[in-house]
Amino acid sequence: MHSVAEKSGVNMRLAAAITRVLILLLVALSPPVMAQPSPIDVATAQLTTAETALNGVDRALDTRTDRDSRAKLRDAALTAQSDAREAADQLRGQLALIDARIAGLGPSVAGVVEAADIRNERRSLAQARNSLDSKVKRGQLMTVEAGQLVAEIDQTDAAEIGERIAVRAASPLAPRFWSDLFAAFPRDARRISTFVGREWTQVEIGLRGGLPWGALLGTLLAVALLLPVRQLLRRMGQRYLIVDAPGHRVRRSANALWRVLVGTAMPTAAAFLFVQGLRWSALLAPSWSGLADAFVAAAGFSGFTASVGAAFLMASQPSWRVVSLSDAAATALRPVGWAFGALTFVVILLGAFNSAIGASPTALLAMEVVEVIVHLILIGGTLVIVGRLRAGEAADGESEKEAATSAGVGAVTLTLWLIVAGAGLSLLIGYVGLAITVAQFVVWATLLAVCTYLLMVVIDDVATSLFQRDSRIGQTLRHGMGVGASAIDQFGVLLSAVLRLAIIVIALGLLLYPFGAGFGSFLDRVAGLARGVEVGGVSISPGTILRFVAVLALGLFLVRQFTGWLDQRYLPSTGLDGSVRNSIRLVARYLAIALAVVWALASLGIGMERIALLLSALSVGIGFGLQAITSNFVSGLILLAERPIKIGDLIRVGTDEGDVKRISVRSTEIELADHSTLIVPNSELITKSVLNKTLAGPLGRIQLQFSVPIATDADRVRALVLETFANEPSILDAPAPVALVDGIADGRILFNCFGHVASPRSTGEARSNVLLDLLRRMRAEGVELGTVPQRLELVPLPSPAHAPS
């Protein structure tokens, strides 16, 4: 027992010793492991890193760089700018904390000796604040410097693109063009022969090792992906959508998106496997590596172009089509997408081939001429097809909506014809760079527009189908979280609008991306060479005027789209009545127009302070010259805000009575009983008396006034009146009809009777029915009815004796 106890004590002491050693080790190791740097140290290190990156970009720009290098430098400058701004914001937050601590200490009072710890605290806080303030200013300065570097890179890109477009080469019709081409042909032919010979030598070396199983496997996999696998994935996607997708709209849009994904992924994967198989079998020369990578990229982009066109048209499956397009139009336009896809493939591959062999400038110019010609032929052929389709639809007859759509298509077609003609003329006079840029821009803009439309359709279908009151998500939100049905519908519409707006913004940002940031600036320089004049600090030139018109037109177009969406999509989902919708629609419309005008003025360089100054200067003139219009405008805003009169109310203005049909900020339209329209200025409705018969409630009242001889049984007459009210279906039981004895005069009993109907518009017919029935009943009872008696007094004339002299 003693040995066991000793052994147990030894074990306990050993365990305690091991525990102490472990605790000491943890304490020794914990500072470097658990210590976290302060936010100030992190922000300072971030500033240092950003400064180093900006210095590297600045040094790199001192040397000659190509476009790809400048793109990388631009990204580095933007990253450094973002890091510097973020670090400055973090340091600014720490600076605010120090300012709060300094404010907590309060200002030092002259003649009062503070404690030593307070003085030390104040001194350390002042030093920390000065250090943080300098670092914040340093970050702000780095942000500005990064912006200047980005602007310098953008200007260099713009100048390079401008030089490329503005350079005039020999015209394809000039003999010099062909003589230079024939002179450069032998050297280019030798370059092509050398380039092909390297690959042939590599193929011979690769085949010596036996059968190229890798290349065969890659080729077989590529063919399988392009043909059976692609078709199988399409059918699987449609089968899944038919079974599980919620609603036809989601199926239709999701199928279009799936076709684009499959049509892009399969050619890309097939080209990658084919090239990889050649590399596995050592059949690809090192000098052909760049061309092989370009082959993969060309296959992917051309597949994307063709699949987007096929998903947009759906020529073989009209029931899955997302756009309102006839079968004849879809069939006629079907080859266009494949043609542009093939052209894209050839252009990318030829560009990589010319770069790989180091083709001469003359050969590159000839390739660009051929590319422009093919582009213009395809664009012109597409426009011819569209023109024939429009002519056929016009011959068959079209509705008003189709006519409006056809007019818009006609305007776009005419614009494209003018662009094609301009590009062709530029090519003939030697501006090949301008011609090829314009042709590529038309193709890119068309592809981007089709992709944007498809994405907007997909987003709208998915958002409005998933977030509606009867969907699975909608029912879950309604029953599980108590969300209102109208709120779910509104959220779906708003989500769709926000996402589609984001897609439009992204598309606008991508519109000029392949052509360099300076393309728009170059067009501005070409459009107006004049410097313009300075008016009140604002530069006015033809370019700024065109920009003002373009911005104003765009703003008004966005206003129209917004008000249309608000009126047709959002407001119907709110469940509000027509009057409230009209008020919201009008106020939103005028506010949107005001914002569009301010935006257009801002494009001229007129800031908000100048606009406010202009409005204040014109306020006196507006007050005197437009007093009536201003009064009606303010009155209209009061009507829309207070809503004493709403659309659908039955009102009486003077002697005219009718239904309110429309309220604008200037006037109100009232439909009278004879179906004519009375237009009343809003100031009349605000400053004068108006009888609104449906403001407090929808009920109407009829009144009957008559008299009977005093010998008539008044109780029996009252009972007959109430029975007559009860027999008329339009008379309401609540409030109950009443028949009152209003008085006795000139030997007759006066009755005043009231009954209520559901609407003031029904009082005329109801009153007529009650009077007819009451007359029949009174005649059957032998009661003599009369109106309220009128008393006539005869005043005798004065006698001649008392006549005035």
From TrEMBL:
- Where would I find the Mechanosensitive ion channel MscS domain in this sequence? 629-692
TM ranges: 211-229, 256-275, 295-315, 336-357, 363-386, 407-432, 438-459, 491-513, 545-566, 587-606, 612-640
Localization of this protein: Cell membrane
SUPFAM superfamilies named in the record: Mechanosensitive channel protein MscS (YggB), C-terminal domain, Mechanosensitive channel protein MscS (YggB), transmembrane region, Sm-like ribonucleoproteins
Q: Which Pfam families does its entry note?
A: DUF3772, MS_channel_2nd
Q: Which family is this sequence assigned to?
A: Belongs to the MscS (TC 1.A.23) family.
Stretches assigned to the DUF3772 domain: 137-196
Primary place of residence? membrane
Q: Is-annotated flag, keyword Transmembrane helix?
A: yes
This protein's name = DUF3772 domain-containing protein
**Transmembrane among the record's keywords?**
yes
Annotated organism of origin: Sphingomonas insulae
Q: How does it sit in the membrane?
A: Multi-pass membrane protein
The UniProt keywords, alphabetically, are:
Cell membrane, Membrane, Transmembrane, Transmembrane helix
